[in-house]
User: Fold this.
Amino acid sequence: MHHKKLGLAAALTLTLTAPMTMAKDTVVNIYNWSDYIDPAILEKFETQTGIKINYDVYDSNEVLEAKLMSGSTGYDVVMPTGSFLERQALAGVYAEIDRSQLKNIGNLDAEMASKVALHDAGNKHNVPYTWGTIGLGYNVDMVKARLGDVPVNSWDLVFDPEIAAKLSDCGVSVLDSPAEVVSVALNYLGLDPNSEKKSDLKKASKLISASRSSFTKFSSSQYISDLANGELCVSMGYNGDVLQSQSRAIEADQGINISYIIPKEGSLVWFDLMAIPADAPHKEAAHKFIDFILQPENAAGVSNYAFYAVPNNKVEPYLLEEVKNDPSIYPTDDIKEKLFTQKAHSVKFDRLLTRAWTNIKTARN
Amino acid sequence: MSMSLGSAVMDRMAAKLQKYNFVKKINWGRAVVAGIPTFWLGLFFFVPFLVVFKISLTEAAIAIPPYSELLEWDLEEAYISIKINLGNYLFLFEDDFYLDAYLSSVKIAVLSTFFTLLVAFPIAYAIAKSDGSTRVLLLALVILPFWTSFLLRVYAWMEFLKKNGIVNEFLLTIGVIDEPLIMLQTDFAVYIGIVYTYLPFMVLPLYSALEKMDGTLLEAAQDLGSKPTQSFFLVTLPLAMPGVIAGCVLVFIPAVGEFVIPALLGGADTLMIGRVLWDEFFLNRDWPMASAVAIVMLVVLVLPIMLIRNSQGKGEAV
Assistant:
């Protein structure tokens, strides 16, 4: 609403000044995940371009989608995750990216971009912003006390009922995200993580249900603080979130030691993408912003701040040492090979999936 | 509905105007007084209800907005097509999952309304019996929590109830328990959350009923040999009944559809219709189905209660 008004005001000034100068946007409305960029980078954009940023944040793809699907949000740049953009693009939510306006598009990591193209053919509607993995965050000492001196490197921690049961007393959390958890479970079972077969879904549900009694929580953000203050010993989570939890634990200095692993069975890689809604009022400024983020020093401002990887070839010299050398942010090549993308599902399968998920959570069968 | 109601009022007024020309002024005043809330309800309750009802008769689609068109017309071709999809409602009744969710919501709402009443009655009674300045202070204290965001207050309860939270720390320190109690993410926490949140909605109507009570009635009961418990059940409670009913309705209706409290305080296995609705809307992206769930909740649960409440309100001469 607020933005719509701004958009109107801007349009008005545009028509008034149009004969004198070329259409030039003076504002850009950005809707991004919370805590996802160094605020200094935003200020830099404003001083460099003279374009004012209106910055809003969300904390779930679902919220973003509900807004986009109701139409005319007034936003110029949004950051949906790949599988969400895939479906939204089909509904005609996004404008095509005009690559001629992006001088720095050459900096994009081609290998990563090709994975994103699985969501968006030819990457017509997006420029990748960050990428990350789903893995296990764990409390090193609490897990050691219960499992002994074994290497922690497998999804067994949550999917093997016997092992999960040993950890249950110190807290086990699973992401409350049916599509992602089920695809990880399918991959663990050696099945196609993007399968829409009913029989495969059943197998995955059975696997997750077997450890259900050991899961103390289903959460997609609460685990960040719970891991940090010792209420959980194992949590399925997003790498950057677990690292955030790790740094909180270090700050609190209560002797809590958090670590993140990508299990050896392989895991899901996701991409958050910059996209321009079809009805964005300031498309030119939106392109300028995307181009600005493609500059390596600015991309580094995202990676160093949010602890997520950015798909930029030239970013390395600008990364902090501890970010660059952390395999949980920039995994090694042999781990990268085991990462898969999760495609958007059909409406019909989504319904089956949600129901299966509710049944798992409420232990109804 | 609002339209026909409005015109019925106008018709009646016109008839009256013909009979008694002299009461003209008073009738206009009444029409305005009745018209504003009617208009308000029509605009902010009935119109949104119709919009949701309309969506519930469509089909989910990959489009903006994500559902099919109910009405399609082309004036030049003199073509109108109405496509009504009752599938959502049929599916609701076919699948016992939804029934379970409704029943579970009703159970949680009934129990928490009852607990709220138990907690609120003594509070309201004490306020009604206190005098002048204390009463104002106590009433202000009841309303005070509204000054903080509801969400923040629910988060505060998470701090209280969590494993190494304030309640457990306290109980461990005084030695009542050896192991921290698991309270958060249980139905118990949901009850606490609902009772706490809706307490003022129960206290205030109870207070206003109790405050009007004539104290001499209790004295009379005592004179006639009634024990305090007897006079409570025979005199106080019946007189407080309008407040009890109003309070229960005010707590029960929002509690049935509650989403935030079970989402934050409840466990993964707390099944409530509010969460089912969220899943339909955000996970299945099925707006029509979500709308059907909401409409059925309204028609089956809320409408009967409101009708009962209305018929009672009329009996008592508002």
